[in-house]
Amino acid sequence: QIQGMPYGNCLLLSDGPVNNSTGIPFFYVTPKDNTVTDLLKNPMASLTLPEADGNVCRKNVIDPEDPRCARLTLMGQMVTVPPEEVEFAKQAMFSRHPVVRKWPRSYEWFFMKMNIEHIWLQSWYGEVSAIAVEE
Predict the structure, then answer these.
(1) What pLDDT is attached to residue 54?
(2) Residue 6 domain-assigned (yes or no)
(3) Structural domain tally of the chain?
(4) CA–CA separation, 96 vs 74, rounded Å?
(5) What b/e sequence results for 85-113 when a residue is b if at least 16 CB atoms lie within 10 Å of its CB, and e otherwise?
(6) What is the CA radius of gyration of the chain?
(7) Is 40 contained in some domain?
(8) 99: CATH
(9) Which of the pair, 54 or 103, is modelled with greater confidence?
(10) What CA–CA distance (Å, rounded) separates 35 from 135?
C-alpha cells in the first residue's frame, strides 16, 4: 500500500569508536527490515541529527528537537560496507552500542554506511546552510 512512498525509521548508528570518529555513518542492519530492503533497491537516503548538546539547547534547557536547536541533515547513498572496512564498522558499532552483540544471529545482520553527497545545517527556524562534504 505504501510502495514508492518515502518513510522514516530509527536505526542505531556510529561514525567510529569513541576516540576515532570519522563522520561516516555506519549502520548494523538486517535484510528482514523493510527499510533495508528498500535501500538495497534505491540507496538514496537522508539522515537528520538533532543538536543534542549545543550551546543554545544546553544553556537554555531546550528540547533538542526544538527548531531553535541546530539540525544536521546528511544526504547520500547507502551502501554495503566492503570487506576491508567491516572490522572498523564492527568496532565502531559495538563500542558505542554493545547490546547489538546479543542480537539474534538468525537475522543475517550486516553493515551499511552512507556515502555522503550533501550536508545541510539548519541552525534556526528554516535557515539552511550547505556545508561542503570535505569539511
Answers:
(1) 61
(2) no
(3) 1
(4) 20
(5) eeebbbebbeebeeeeeeeeeeeeeebbb
(6) 16
(7) yes
(8) 2.30.110.10
(9) 103
(10) 29
The pLDDT of residue 52? 66
- Provide the grid cell at 38: 528498500
Residue 68 predicted with pLDDT over 80: no
CA distances (Å), origin 69, targets 39, 47, 65: 29, 16, 7
Q: What is the pLDDT of residues 38-62, one digit of tens each?
A: 899 999 999 988 876 566 666 776 6
Instruction: Decide if 1 is inside a domain.
Output: no
Burial class (CB in 10 A: 0-12, 13-18, 19+), 65: exposed
SS3 per residue for the chain: CCCCCCCCCCCCEECCCCCCCCCCCEEEECCCCHHHHHHHHCCEEEEEEECCCCHHHHHCCCCCCCCCCCEEEEEEEEEECCHHHHHHHHHHHHHHCHHHHHCCHHHCCEEEEEEEEEEEEEEECCEEEEECCCC
Q: What is the pLDDT of residue 64?
A: 66
Is residue 4 in a domain? Answer: no
